[in-house]
């Protein structure tokens, strides 16, 4: 049986803590301040309870789509070499792709840490790429080049260094939603301009 603790609800509500679970990103959709966001999230969950269990949204979607484990154990399906993971909703190719990506990200994270990248070193790299001073990245200036640099910094800090949005909001003295928007902008900038944190 899956409990609210298993699914991460207790972490979002602040009753438990898991360093790997990014609660800030989820809660940023419900409010600017943590206490208000938790209240709104709780209301959202409460409103959904009367809808009951929705099988299409629970783990092992691929297994269900094939007719359950009984059907999967049939020899004609076994021979298809199905890749599955009950934590992931999707077909075999999608599951395989997602697990491969997760493994690559794990290896990259440790490579980045081995090379000494932290917030300060990342800010220095962004400073070089965007031609701004490091202090400008941590300022609240709305000048275009400084917003660009801050966005790239937030994206790399969040996705490459796995720094929580709460910590970034504290360091930059901005709100959680502002960090979430900056991460999204930074992702587009890195992609469009071909910026790389590591010089390969």
Name the helicity range.
55-70%
Radius of gyration: 21 Å
Question: What is the architecture of the largest domain at the second tier of CATH?
Answer: Orthogonal Bundle
Element order: H for helix, E for strand: HHHHHHHHHHHHH
Number of strands: 0
Number of domains: 3
Q: Report strand %.
A: under 5%
Mean pLDDT: 77
Q: Outline, from the CA principal axes?
A: globular
Tell me about this structure.
This protein has 200 residues and is an all-alpha fold. It folds into 3 domains: 4-52, no CATH class; 61-111, no CATH class; 115-193, Orthogonal Bundle (Chromosomal Replication Initiator Protein Dnaa, Chain: A), CATH 1.10.1750.10. Helix content is 62%, strand content 0%. It has 13 helices and no strands. Helix 11 (144-159) crosses helix 13 (176-193) and helix 12 packs across helix 13 (176-193). Residues 1-6, 59-63 and 75-82 have low confidence and may be disordered.
In short:
The chain is mainly alpha-helical and 200 residues long. The protein has helices at 4-7, 9-12, 23-27, 34-48, 61-65, 68-72, 75-78, 92-114, 119-130, 134-137, 144-159, 165-172, 176-193. 18% of the residues are buried.
